[in-house]
Specification:
Blueprint: H1 2-20, E1 29-33, H2 41-48, H3 55-58, H4 61-69, E2 74-82, E3 86-93, E4 96-100, E5 104-107, E6 112-113, E7 126-128, H5 134-149, E8 155-160, E9 166-170, E10 175-179, H6 184-198, E11 205-212, E12 215-220, H7 223-226, E13 230-233
Parallel strand pairs: 1-3, 4-7, 7-8, 10-11
Antiparallel strand pairs: 2-3, 4-5, 5-6, 8-9, 9-10, 11-12, 12-13
C-alpha cells in the first residue's frame, strides 16, 4: 500500500512538473482588448513578453496585471488564461476628467495620474488644490458648472490655494473670487442677476468678488471708463 501511494504521489508530482514546464504549454498568443489612449497592443505585448517564460500555467497573472497598471494611461488590467495557449488581457483606460496642477491629470474617480505631457488631451477644465482635495474640487467644479451653465457661462478652471480660498474662471475671461467658504448661496445670487445686469457688459469685466455678505464687487478691465471697483447689489 505504501509503495502504491508513493507511486501515485510521484506520478502527481511528475504531472505537475510536466504541466508547469514552459516547453509543455507555452503561451503563444497574447490577446489585448481595450487598448486606448496612447496604449497600443504592441506596447502591451512588449511589457508582457519577458513574463511568459513560465508557460501557460506558470505565468503570474497578478504580476502581469501590476506591470500593465504601471502604464500611466491604464486604469485597470484584467489578465486571464484561455486554453490552451492564450493570455487574454482586458484593459480599462484612464478616463481623464481635468488637468490637475501643471503636470498631472485627474481621472473620473478623482485620482491623480501623470502620463507624459505630450499625451495630455486638449480642452479639459483645470483644477488645482492641496493634495487630498481632488474629489472635493471635482464636486465643486460640477456644482459651479451646473449653476452657471443656465447663464451661458462655462467654468474652465477652479483652484483652492494654501489658505483654502477658492477662485474660478469662466471661458469668457472673467475671474470669480469666492473666498475661503464654498458658498453656493452667494454664487446663486450672482447667477440670478448675471444675465440681466452683467452679461451685456461681460467683455469689460475683469473680476467679480463674492466676499461680501449681501452682494458682490465688480472689477472692470478699464477703470477709467467704467469707474472704480464697487460693490454691486443683488
Amino acid at each position: 500500500m505504501l509503495v502504491l501511494l508513493g507511486a501515485v504521489g510521484f506520478g502527481a508530482n511528475a504531472l505537475r512538473d510536466w504541466l508547469l514546464s514552459p516547453s509543455t504549454l507555452p503561451v503563444r498568443v497574447v490577446r489585448v482588448e481595450g487598448a486606448g489612449h496612447d496604449v497600443s497592443p504592441a506596447q502591451v505585448r512588449r511589457i508582457v513578453a519577458p513574463m511568459l517564460g513560465g508557460g501557460f500555467f506558470g505565468v503570474d497573472l497578478n504580476a502581469v496585471a501590476k506591470a500593465l497598471t504601471a502604464i500611466p494611461w491604464v486604469y485597470r488590467a484584467n489578465v486571464q488564461r484561455r486554453w490552451p495557449d492564450t493570455l487574454l488581457i482586458r484593459l480599462q483606460p484612464q478616463q481623464p476628467f481635468a488637468y490637475w496642477g501643471k503636470d498631472a491629470l485627474l481621472n473620473r474617480q478623482g485620482e491623480v495620474f501623470k502620463p507624459p505631457l505630450s499625451t495630455f488631451p486638449k480642452g479639459l477644465p483645470s483644477l488645482d488644490g492641496p493634495q487630498g482635495k481632488e474629489s472635493e474640487l471635482m464636486q465643486h467644479y460640477r456644482e459651479a458648472s451646473t449653476l452657471f451653465s443656465a447663464d451661458g457661462l462655462q467654468v474652465i478652471a477652479l483652484s483652492e490655494d494654501a489658505r483654502r480660498a477658492y477662485r474660478l474662471w469662466f471661458a469668457n475671461g472673467i475671474e470669480l473670487v469666492i473666498g475661503r467658504d464654498w458658498d453656493m448661496r452667494r454664487m446663486a445670487r450672482l447667477a440670478a442677476v448675471y444675465a440681466r445686469v452683467l452679461a451685456p457688459r461681460a467683455k469689460r469685466i475683469d473680476r467679480i468678488d463674492l466676499r461680501y455678505p449681501n452682494g458682490f464687487a465688480v472689477a472692470w478691465k478699464h477703470p477709467k471708463t467704467d469707474g472704480a471697483t464697487a460693490p454691486a447689489k443683488e
